[in-house]
Write a structure and sequence with these properties.
Layout (H helix, E strand, L loop, with lengths): L7 E4 L8 H8 L5 E5 L7 H10 L5 E8 L5 H14 L4 E6 L3 H7 L6 H10 L1
Length: 123
């Protein structure tokens, strides 16, 4: 039995958000995953994911990567759960500690990024 690796594409942070629907539609059935980049001061992944899920049937949508401290743990969980409801089995939630200089600009830089990440994931 052979196992093949998943093939995915990323929607770059600098792309016009309005293009995500066309981009996702063109990938549906051709690749396994579309990763939506969340990058402070550019784009956020959840609204892009909702748009991509609305126009596709098979494509898995990855959130890459939601900064743990940019939202509360409850809001992050609610966003991922809502997206999972829109596309059951097709959403991959990614959570990271974020770029620390950007977290500082937002006023949410923790003393310990790994502790903050652990707290959010545990919550």
């Amino acid at each position: 039995m052979t196992t093949r690796a998943a093939l995915g594409m990323a929607f770059d942070r600098t792309f016009d958000p309005a293009l995500v629907r066309h981009f996702a539609r063109s990938l549906d059935g051709k690749v396994d995953e579309l990763w939506l980049i969340e990058d402070c001061f550019y784009t956020t992944a959840p609204p892009l994911a909702a748009a991509a899920l609305a126009v596709t049937e098979e494509l898995r949508i990855g959130l890459g990567i939601l900064p743990a401290r940019a939202r509360t743990a409850a809001i992050t969980a609610m966003e991922i759960a809502t997206l999972a409801g829109l596309g059951p089995g097709r959403v991959v939630g990614g959570i990271g500690h974020g770029v620390q200089s950007w977290m500082g600009q937002m006023g949410v830089r923790p003393a310990s990024p790994l502790t903050a990440l652990d707290e959010v994931l545990t919550t």
